[in-house]
Amino acid sequence: MSDTTRNPASTTREERFEHGLKILDQVDGEAGHRVVDALSDINPELGHQIIAWAFGDIYDRPGLAARDRQLVTLGMLTALGGCETQLEVHVNASLNVGLSPDQIVEALLHSAVYCGIPKAMNASLVAKKVFGERGLLPVGGRAETGTAAA
Hints:
Blueprint: H1 13-27, H2 30-38, H3 44-59, H4 66-80, H5 84-96, H6 101-115, H7 117-133
Helix pairs in contact: 1-3, 4-5, 4-6, 4-7, 5-7, 6-7
């Protein structure tokens, strides 16, 4: 991510897109490109805005580190529900920016308190798919029982 604040108004549409593409590559990699490519024959302007605005202007702001942005994104996509395709991309992105599988699982567990168990479970199953594809299963140790060891 860049260390300087950009002024989107002072750049051209193409410059914003190129900058956003660099950020997309750093965060989402190939998964992000697949999402944008899927829009090319139905809504290419949405694909452009995802790259130029969401990644180039918003994602690259200096106020939060990339890993923190991903934690927020995981929580919001979990809360929304029905965002499994985007959640899959962002679980991958979370790994790409340095979150561990254990940290991702902990964030999804935490979301159960605020979003509900069904949404947290759906998000966890998406994470399981991504972790499996990346050879990261099983994650963590045994479940905590809340009892002290004797």
